[in-house]
What we know:
- There is one protein chain.
- The strands form four sheets. Strands 1-2-3-4-5 form a five-stranded mixed sheet, with helices on both faces. A five-stranded parallel sheet has the order 7-8-9-6-12. Strands 10-11 form a two-stranded antiparallel ribbon.
- By secondary structure, it is of the alpha/beta class.
- It has helices at residues 10-25, 27-38, 63-69, 88-99, 117-122, 146-156, 176-187, 202-214, 232-248, 280-288, 314-333, 347-350, 375-387, 396-406, 410-421, 435-443, 450-464, 466-475, 480-492, 498-502, 515-520, and strands spanning 42-48, 55-60, 74-79, 103-112, 129-134, 192-196, 221-225, 295-300, 337-343, 353-354, 357-358, 366-370, 391-392, 431-432.
- A hairpin with a 6-residue loop joins strand 1 and strand 2 (55-60).
- The protein has 21 helices and 14 strands.
Amino acid sequence: MNDLPGRMTANQRILADYEERFRRSSQGAADFLDFLKRSQAGTWRFEQDSTPGRWWINITLPAHQAEVFGLHREIQVLYTEYEHVEPRALSVIQGRVRRDMRVEPDVAILVSRDKNVRHTTARRRGEMAIVPIDLDEIRLDGARPLHALIGESVATVDHFDVATPVRDPSGFYGRSAEIDVIAADLRRAISVGVFGLRKTGKTSLLNSLTSLRDDDERNVTVRVDVSEIVTGEQFRSSILEGLWDAVHALPGNGDFKPRTRTLTRQGKRRVELPDSSASWIQDIRVLLQRVERPAVLVVDEVDQAFPPRSNLEPGESRALFSSLVQLRSLLQEQERLALLCAGVDPALFERPIVEGKDNLLYKLVKLIWLAPMSREEMAEMVRSLGRRMGVRVRDHEVIDLLFDQYGGHPLLTRKACSFATRSRTPQELPFHISREGIEQAIASREYDGPQDQAADVVTSFTEWFSNEAALLRLYFSSRDDENELARSLLADEPDALLHAVAYGLCFTDRSARVKAAIDALER
């Protein structure tokens, strides 16, 4: 921007024109441009948003600062003068960054006058790092430059330490093969069940697939989490009301007024109807007449519908099971509905007999085992989350050690990296994860650390597959007689460790994959 007007290229003149429009838009805009100039940041794009009071700006850091943070692409800035920033603004930033290959995928900047925005952005751990800038603070004498604000932000939020399911795509890694296969199956109305160990990313995978479907307004997706369900009636009502809303949101369906027995004209369950079990399937058929491609019912924690294992009251777990049996007819007779479900135990679809009766859900869905990540996917997750924290992982031995110990299990891997990076400060960036740091994390026995979480994984596996857990203890025992017994049992029944292998506790040759979990078996 220092060139004389006569020497500017056409693109430079366009950029200068938009920059001047931005400068004239408010006093705060001029202050922000002055701040960028003091910070030696380059400006490359100015775009006024369709929402009043918002501008999109692309900036770059000076070369030496870009090297420190590993931010060599343009950085996306959302400029506002809002005194209160709604959390959805962060999702707007994340969505824009996902669509623009020119900008950094892991870091963006939000400018506002909101004094609480630091707390709002810090709560989005695991997702894209959004650096908050207070428009009032940068005007003060002695205001810190941009690189100092970035350093403070990335050094104080631990994006590794996330134990909750990922909701935004910016926090989801790997699983591209599984996503492609499942998405293709759903398009053909093939029902799918995703099963795997605790905290391997099942719910995050459902979130990612749901988000992918939501990108196309012609898709109908209804989501139910059985952990939030108390009765079978609540389960049926949640599906019906969700399907009503999704079908009416389709293009051209705004005036659709179906005649149903269980719902009002506003799409809410009729309060005078005590039990919808006799009519809800027919109402679903009526609603599905207005979909042009298969609707998808997403059910998380589906194993809670299996009466022998459910935490629900016995009568309600059987009612929930019966509701799924009723859905079976819809799933098998037409191509307008598919089921996508997830859980730990696939017995609901694996066992031909349940409580002495034929299991009508037997083999209803295509089973997909969600093993831990591959080494490459795990490495990408570690490096990407690290970039959001000013952390580098250059030593391949660190990646090898993480995979050797945790086998690509996402939660255990992140917990170890969190432990190894907790001492970083803004002055020490970039912070390098060392082999010694990971070794200390592996050895740590602190509460909620990687070893503690590994023990929880084993506890969960033992709860669902007690016979396999007992066989694993024999197989990996330090006693020769127990080893020999395990090998003899496996010779007679080669599939006796089916789920241990499918879920990734062991490799296909039965050697330990998630060593931290196998070690916890002996406790």
